[in-house]
Amino acid sequence: MKSLYTYIILSLALLFNLSANAQDYLTLEELTNQKQEAVNNSQFRLAKVIQAEIDNRPEAGTIDLNTQPTKAENVLALENQTREAVSKEDWLLAKSLKKQRNAALGIVEKPSLSFSSPTNMREEAYQEMKTIDYATANSYIPTAEAPSIVSNTDAGNTKIKNTEENEVAKDLKYRRSSLYTLMVNDLTRLHSGVIKDAFGNSTLPQKFNDHNIGPYMIDGLANSDDQTQIITTYLANNNVARDLIAKWFNRSSDGKFNMDLVADRGMYDATAMDKVVANSSERGNALLADAGEELIGNTFIIVNDYKFTNKEEAVAKGKKASGFLKAGASFIPGVGSHIQKGITAAETAATVAGKGYWVRTTSYLYRLVWDEEAAAIFYNNYWTDANNFDPAKVEAFNDATNFKLKLIGSQTAGADVQSSIFTDKSEEDLIRMATAKATDRAIAKLEKKYEEFRTKTPLISTDPLAAKIGTKEGLEKGDKYEVIQQIEGDDGKTIYKRIGVIKVATVWDNSYTPEEEEELKKQGNLPEQQFSTFKGIGKYYPGMLIKQIN
What we know:
It is a single chain. This protein is an alpha+beta fold. Among the domains are: 4-110, no CATH class; 154-174 and 456-550, no CATH class. It is built from 19 helices and 14 strands. Strands 1, 8, 9, 10, 11, 12, 13 and 14 form an eight-stranded antiparallel sheet that branches. Strands 2, 3, 4, 5, 6 and 7 form a six-stranded mixed sheet that branches.
């Protein structure tokens, strides 16, 4: 393989057309030969760069700079500025300068998916929600004084919500935690546009209720490895806790609340729940408390901060230094020291194991504070509905700042997507896939670390004993899960009773993205077993819930 020095020089020459003289301008034939040489040396990223240069050539195949003497000096200046921007990892400036340089040369660039229209599923949903009261259109609001970060400080019962059919049960309804996800927006990072759209088009894991309230990006501190204070300030200044509560109570554009969403997610009777709010009683208050503890209090926010690394550069530099086995975080080019110090040796070894892309995400986890005090303030001071409309309470809620979010913690995870000359995936597609996988792994790591964020999953079968979770959820052979029975007490509140402990026997590999799943289906290689199995002794039924305990 060519030396790293040769690789860099050739890459720069092709990316920026460093020469200002016509006789140094590579012909199509020369470019084609160099592309083949790059392929022969397994330099697939370089081959892609050369192909992009070929695709951008005018039909004549060459540009005679001698016919444009007034442009040559300007082009050279732009190229020098671009190289300087790249050396400083200012990718946004580098792209702008490259675009100016190409325009000066008369090169018409093909549209890039990286900087195409920002519209994605989350953006479209956000625009639709702007007409709804709980969907704030506020952007990040600077504050002189950042808010502080709140940190962690059977008799008479009847069984509910179980089925006794000893067969695979589908679409089992149970009470899920609710999740609102956002990402840190940092335009100075490489491929920020692709990663943003990958996040915006991602789907929420089915084990969560989607509690999206609109905005999905937070303007972060450029190249910072800790966005905690920026995120906390944004969430407080934009009153996100209040907006999460507004969504829970289905607030209309004129300020009226109802219990429809709470009833649907909690499997309550909606009409009965509305009456409970209006008519205080011991059992009614217990029902509201149950809904609060089971549903509203299990509302979480995850904010993802993504970083991108190309693996081929890591391979080249790692080999030059001391080979694959000795490659360390310092060998990853294009990554500042603030990022490198968070990359472990194990992650680096995985990074240089093949061609493709490595996307790392630091995921920050917050929880909505919904306790007796918060509930009392809401029901007493702000509740107003179609039957008892109070404009004063509408205005009071608009100005409310009582509701809070608690920072639980953060976790870092990464994912790589293999690429080769044989793949038909574009660079953008590979980055999207890596972004999706990194996000899934971060959620799994948060669940393992923070017990309060651990979700419940229903058993879908008892022969075999099975649940639809797998590697995507961080499942490992031997993991222990408690089997819990939902019990409804005399006061109407839900109680969970452990009835047994089971261990993971076989793990379902469900780590593929939707695109990969579709390809596996076409190839006939999608695993027939779409669940993980467990072993344990006890009388269990499909629909019973399991929760990890180790």
